[in-house]
Amino acid sequence: MTETVDVNTGEAVVFWVCAILSVAGALGMVLSRKAVHSALWVALTMINLAILYIANAAPFLGMVQVIVYTGAVMMLFLFVLMVVGVDSSDSLIETIKGQRAAGILLIFVLVPFWSSLLVRTFAWEVILRDVGLIIVDEEHDGSYKQHDGLRYHARDLAVARAHHHQIPLLLGSATPSLESLQQALSGVYRHLRLTQRPSRHPPAKLELLDMRHQHRQGGLLPGALQAIRQTLKAGKQALVFINRRGFAPSLACHSCGWLAECHQCDARMTLHRQPPLLACHHCDSRRALPDACPECGSGDLRALGSGTERTEETLQGLFPDTVVHRIDRDSTRKKESFEQVLKEIHRGEPCLLVGTQMLAKGHHLPHVTLVVVVNADGGLYAADFRALEHSAQLLEQVAGRAGRAAHPGRVLVQTLHPDDPHLG
User: Fold this and answer.
1) Three-state DSSP class for 159?
2) What confidence score (pLDDT) does residue 76 get?
3) Three-class SS of residue 413?
4) What sign does the CA torsion over 273, 278, 282, 283 have?
5) With contact defined as beta carbons under 8 Å apart, do 199 and 403 qualify?
6) Which of 9, 22, 234, 419 reaches 20 to 30 Å from 62, CA-CA?
7) How far is the C-alpha of 365 from the C-alpha of 403, rounded, in Å?
8) Sites in the chain below the pLDDT cut of 70
């Protein structure tokens, strides 16, 4: 879905007045009779850009970004003039003519900014001007929410725009968000139910595997490995779902208990093997693997827990004659790499899929008859107050990958709390 912000007549007038005044301010900055008067024109430009933001006519700009960008440009510009020397009685245009460096700076810094401003302005006014229907698929998905820059929720924006234009809005999801579900149950939304799969086959059977007091290989229980072996023997495909990238969630010293933590945000750093490094999945900070514990000097550093890389390595060792596809953000960075893997999966040959939530939703995998959820407890008991909702949505979505064709599906959920009613 493409989102845009509606610009009504009043906002359009404010926008064009402020835009014209901003351009006038930029021209006045250059053509001012004295260099010191340019500061007044800069102030006019910044004020009008701020008004543009407040009027919501240029939503791609943030207030802080506008001020910082304009201020940085002018500071850099005036610094160059100070370095090359400027006569206070000269205008900026005369100074620029005599100082090639300042002229180049003005052209390559200011011109792209104003060009971008005008191009984006026309784009925001043209996109979806005559929209007649809005469809939001997987409306519960958290990726619709923008957490930085201009903060908004695309689903809620679609609701507001549909209401503004008095047009239909279709929110689709097998696991709707609680707020959307409440709107449907209370009659605010019309509730349409799809009671059957397109293939008319029953949903996959869900089974809980108790992880207590059992040995695991790469995070997998013997019962799960046996089910994978039977699936491959039958010529089908199996999906192993583990929502943790990397080799292991943390690296620890077995002598003193030291844990690798991020120096930027204090989160635990994830151990990666391909390539070998420590990475923070919160702030994207990275650093090299230590040869020894930085606190006690011991070389007994151990990986704790399992990620997609460790599970992939375990399955490759246990099933050497079977192709193992790992699908996560790290393995699909190259252009079209994800599409290439999906093509190989759709050939129908027996294989193992190891993936994160990238595989859990939106993909039709007709040859997958078994799904193994390595650890259902990680999301179920997280600190987030919506953890239970999100975990249930994710489990339902990943379970829907199994048995989508003629063959019945089976879902194995590994958990330390098999008696939890939320997993029933």
Assistant:
1) helix
2) 53
3) strand
4) negative
5) no
6) 9
7) 9
8) 1-129, 149, 199, 424
